[in-house]
Amino acid sequence: MGRTEVCQLIIKLVGGQDNINKVWHCMTRLRFDLIDDSKVEWQKIKQLPGVLGAQNQSDQVQIIIGPQVNAWYQDIVDNMSPEENAPSTTAAAIKPKARKSLISLFMDTVSGVFGPIVPAIAGAGMIKGLLAGLIALKIISAKSDTVMIIDLIASGVFYFLPFFLAVSAAKIFKTNEYLAAAVAACLMYPTLIDAAKALATHTPGAVNVIYFMDIVPVSVFNYSASVIPVIFSILALSYIHRWVDKIMPDVLKTVFTPTLTLFITALVSLTLIGPAGIYLGKLLALGIQGLFDISSVFAGFIVGAIRPIAILTGMHHAMTPIALQNFTDKGFDMLMPMMFMANMAIAGSTFAIYFHVKTRQEKTVVLSAAVSGLLGITEPALFGVLTKYKKAFIATTISSSIASAFIAFFGVRLYGYILSSIFSLPAYIGPYFIYILMGVTLSLGLSFILTYLLVVRTEKRLVAVESQ
After folding, report:
1. Which residue, among 159, 14, 132, 70, has the nearest Cα to 377 in the 3D structure?
2. Structural contact between residues 72 and 3, judged by C-beta atoms closer than 8 angstroms
3. 164 burial class (0-12, 13-18, 19+ CB within 10 angstroms)?
4. What is the dihedral of CA 353, 357, 359, 365, to 10 degrees?
5. How far apart are CA 274 and CA 286, in angstroms?
C-alpha cells in the first residue's frame, strides 16, 4: 500500500473530510482538529503502514509519522477538496465542536504556527552554531567578510522571524497571508526599530513612546526576533478581517476591506497587542528564570524530567517561544541544552532496546529510530519503541533529568536557536564545550545502561505477544 492510499484511509478513519475542521503538521506529526473525535478509528489508524502512533492530546488528533510528515500532509491535502479546512454545515450542525480550553487553544496555536517554520529556524540555527564553532577554534577570523556573509545567512531568519510567524499564523487562523505579512511589516518598519535602538543606546533625543494624532500612544519596541506580539496580532487580524468584510458593501470590498483591515489591525497591534505581547513574553521567560533562581540544578532536573513526556504529548513546542525570548532578551538560553540532553537520553535508551530485540526487522526499526533520535527527531523512538517498554521510558526520564541537572550546574548555555541534534555540538564550542560533551556522554550512557538493565526478559515477551 502506497503513501497516497494510506493518506486516503487516514481521511476516512478520522471520520471523513466533513469531520475535519482543520489539519496541519509539525516536524513529525499530522494534527487534526475534528468536529467529532468519537468517529476516529484509533486501532485501524495505528495499524496503517508508516504510522508510528496516534493519540488524542490537547483536543488534537495527532498521528505520528516521522521526518516524512510534510509529504504525508501534502497527500492529505491533495486528497481533499479545496475546502479541506472547512467542514460542511451539515456535519457542523449535527454535532458542533465543544469549546476548547485555553490550554488546548494555546497548544494548537503554538504547534500549528511553529511546526511548519521549524526547518527554516533549525537550518539557520545550525549554520549559526557551525559559525560559532569555527570562530571559537580560530579557523576563521570573527572580523572577516566570510563571517559577515555567513552571519547574514544565519541571522536573517531570526531577525525577520515575525514575517515567518505571520504567514504561518495566518494559515492557522484562516486569514489572508499577505495582510498578515503587511501587519508584520508594520512592526518591523525601520522607523520603529531605529527608535527602539536609539532608546536602548541612550541616544540623546530618544523617546520611549510616539503618538498617533497626538493622542494615541505607540510604545517604542524592537519587534525583530519577537514571537508573541506577531502571533496575537494575526489572531486579531483574523477577527477584524471577517468583521470588516461582513459590514462592507459588496461593491466596495475589493478596495476597502483590505484597506480598513490593515489600518485597524496595525494600529491595534502597535498600541495594544505588540506591547502586551512583549511583556507577556518577558513574563514567560521570568517564570522559567524563577526555577533557575531557586536552583539551576533544580531547574535542570524539572525541565529534563518533563521534556520526554512533553514530546510524547505534543506539548514540547510550548518551550520554543520561551527559548526565543531568552535569546532576544539575554542573548543566550539554557533550556535548549536541556532539550538536547532529553533527546540524547531517548536515543540512548533506544540503542539499548536494539540489543534486546531479536528479529532483523525489529532491529532495523529500532536502529533507525535511535539514529533519528541522535539527529534530533525523537518521535520514531518514543512512539515506535519506548512506549512499548515502560521501564525504558522511565530510564529515559531519569537520565534526561540527571544529565540536564548536570549541565545546568555548570551553567551550559546556547547563543542561538539550533535543533537539538548530535550535529549541534559545534554550536557549544567555547567555555561550556567540555561540559556539554560530558552531559551528552552522561545522558547517552546512563540511559543505555539503565534501559539495558531494567528491560527484563518478561517485559520483552509481553511486548512480543502484544505485537502479534
Report:
1. 70
2. yes
3. buried
4. -20
5. 18
Instruction: Map out the domains of the chain as residue ranges.
Output: 3-80, 102-287, 295-467
CATH 3.90.180.10, domain 3-80, yes or no: no
Instruction: Give pLDDT, residue 98.
Output: 54
- The amino acid present at 135, given as its one-letter code, is I
Nearest to 399 by CA among 349, 435, 434: 349
222: number of Cβ within 10 Å: 18
In the residue annotation, 26 being an active-site residue is answered as yes
Mean of all residue pLDDT scores within the chain: 83
CB atoms within 10 A of CB 291: 16
Strand partners of residue 60: 57
Nearest to 32 by CA among 50, 52, 12, 56: 56
pLDDT of residue 442: 96
How far is the C-alpha of 268 from the C-alpha of 233, rounded, in Å? 8
Q: At residue 350, what is the residue type?
A: T
At 98, the amino acid letter reads A
The catalytic position among 9, 26, 419, 446 is: 26
Where do the H-state alpha helices sit in 295-432? 296-313, 320-330, 335-354, 360-374, 379-384, 390-409
Q: How far apart are CA 401 and CA 192, in angstroms?
A: 42
Please give the pLDDT value at position 408: 93
6 CB neighbour count, 10 Å cutoff: 18
pLDDT score recorded for residue 463: 47
Q: What is residue 85's predicted lDDT score, i.e. its pLDDT?
A: 45
φ, ψ of residue 38 to 5 degrees: the values are: -70, -15
In the numeric block, which cell numbers belong to residue 200?
536602548
* Residue 67, pLDDT above cutoff 80: no
Cβ-contact 329, 288 below 8 angstroms: no
